Amino acid sequence: MRVEAAVGRRRSLNRSAHVIELTQLGWTYHESAAMSWPLAYLDPGAGSMLLQVILGGVAAIGVVCRLFWGRITSFLGIRGRSGDDPPSTTH
Amino acid sequence: MAQPSFAPGSFRDRTSRVILDRDSVYRALTHDAHLEWKALARTKFFPRLMKAGMIISTTEVDGAAIAEDLAPWTGETKWTGWLRHERVELISYPFEWSFSMLRDAAILQLDVIEAAIEEDMILEDGSPYNVQFRGTTPVFIDIGSFQRLAAGEPWAGYRQFCQLCLFPLMLEAYKGVSFRPWLRGSLEGIEAETMRRLMSNRDLLRRGVFLHVLLQAKLQSRMAATDRSIKQDLRRAGFHKTLILANVRRLRRLIRRLSPPAEASAWSDYEQTHGYSREDRAIKEDFVRRASAVQTWNMVWDLGCNTGTFARIAAEHAHYTLATDADPVVIDLLYQRLRDQQDGSILPLVVNWADSTSGIGWRGKERQSLTDRGRPDLTLCLGFLHHLVIGAHVPLTDFLDWLAELDTDLVIEFIDKRDPAVARMLRDRPDIYDDYQPAVFETRLRAAFDIVDRKALPMGTRTLYFARRCKAAGIRACQ
């Protein structure tokens, strides 16, 4: 992931790459897949989705580790997995 | 004959729309929704659950072949697929259900999700409005809600399921507070933060409260400000459908164990307190039986059914019967008894006719009043009139006018003021009910109905009437 100190600008989208700038954290995500829920009309609630990891019980321990490991390393500025690097294309 | 029309509550999901036409329900699908349907039709669980009566009977139909009167819709290019569903006899809403009905509807949704997940499908939402009752059997009707489960994604409907099913059930089970006014007042249900404020410290120890209420409320407020894509994060962390399955099973265990506080309501011991002698009772049952037997009714409504005795008698001569009472405990008992007997033709609902729902939701039409959803051709008002006129202060003539507008035949009981049941109500308040007199009652009744049969019970204070609409009785004009 690249760190960008951008402030509140959103680049234009194209179908296959999607750039979101997060002003609070200064992170940039590049998402190569299209949005995955074209049909869902409902707001699932970010907190409720996250809770489902905990509700998954023992089965979720692995998921929790991977979830928080990513956040911790990102926060510390350590490079994450190679898959997190953005593709060089697209506006 | 009514024109085909869009079902008023079917608009939030842009990918399908429901059209009501005579005896059928049609669902129009966009291209994307049509793909989801094709995936659903290929699964094994879908026909299995339809056969078991858990999902409404559904078939795909050719848009071009549907009757001409659907042409305004079938021509629209965005609809590429059409489904036909079996029609539910009478639509009901969660705020009209008793505790056990909402609980059974919630469990049905979880059962459907569990079956669907095994084959990589899921319900996109978690709303009890997707469940309808046919008699006492809950049936899942929102076929448009089925979607292919994308890898690594959680159940989007969990939050809605909590707001509309879990929290209302907990409210009644843990606090003894009826969930009906809450669901009627807010179509979105009870939010986690609201529920959290209702829970005392002691309640936090109750099953399911810490996780589903407290933690959810906390996480929701923490995550509200973020722009992060949680879905993205979860997918990368390897979120798996087994986690959804674990949650669904946990929810089901929790909900199965919820039950309302065991307390008698004022009406749940009616069999002991009703004040009829055995002879009176037998005469009343016979009167109702003879009146019901004059024809086969399409729909019978029993207003104030209590134990459901008379609804059952009338149901023997009707295709479908609605048994209502304002007391939720009584309806819950009736529902459980009917369910055990597997009676499919009587639907019990909690309805206070002095305060029944008018249209609510978007444009006041999304969810309709009961009288817009169906009409009776026979109505029973037994031991009921005094509750409305004296208990709820509805003018007698107004009530009879309303019955006349319903265009229904009538079996009605007039209990006069000397009777202990009415005397008790007037004991501590001034008797301002001048209109509540037998003479006034009969005169007004005759204005819109023809009194075909009349019987005064031996106890002397109660009179039964069987009254038919003037048209039905073949009289040109009533007096």
Concise structural overview:
Chain A has 91 residues and is α+β, with helices and mostly antiparallel strands. Helix content of chain A is 27%, strand content 11%. Helix content of chain B is 40%, strand content 18%.
Write the layout of secondary structure elements.
The complex is a heterodimer of chains A (91) and B (479).
Chain A: E1 18-22, E2 27-31, H1 46-55, H2 61-75
Chain B: E1 5-6, E2 16-21, E3 24-29, H1 31-41, H2 45-51, E4 58-61, H3 71-74, E5 81-85, H4 99-118, E6 121-123, E7 131-134, E8 137-140, E9 146-148, H5 158-175, H6 180-185, H7 192-198, H8 209-223, H9 230-236, H10 241-256, H11 270-273, H12 278-292, E10 297-303, H13 309-315, E11 318-325, H14 328-340, E12 346-350, H15 370-373, E13 378-381, H16 385-391, H17 396-406, E14 409-415, H18 420-426, H19 438-448, E15 449-456, E16 462-469
Parallel strand pairs in B: 10-11, 10-13, 11-12, 13-14
Antiparallel strand pairs in B: 1-2, 2-3, 3-5, 4-5, 6-9, 7-8, 14-16, 15-16
- The stretches of 5 or more residues of chain B where confidence is low (pLDDT under 50) are none
The spatial strand order of the largest sheet of chain B comes to: 12-11-10-13-14-16-15
Please name the CATH topology of the largest domain in chain B.
Rossmann fold
What structural class is derived from the secondary structure elements of chain B?
Answer: alpha/beta
- Rounded Rg of chain B: 25 Å
Tally of structural domains of chain B: 3
Spatial gap, N to C terminus of chain B: 30 Å
Given as residue ranges, the uncertain stretches of chain A (5+ residues, pLDDT < 50) are 1-39, 82-91
Instruction: Determine the fraction of residues in helical runs of chain A and give it as a percent range.
Output: 25-40%
Compute the number of strand runs of chain B.
16
Helix count from the secondary structure assignment of chain B: 19
Helix content of chain B: 25-40%
Label the overall shape of chain A: flat
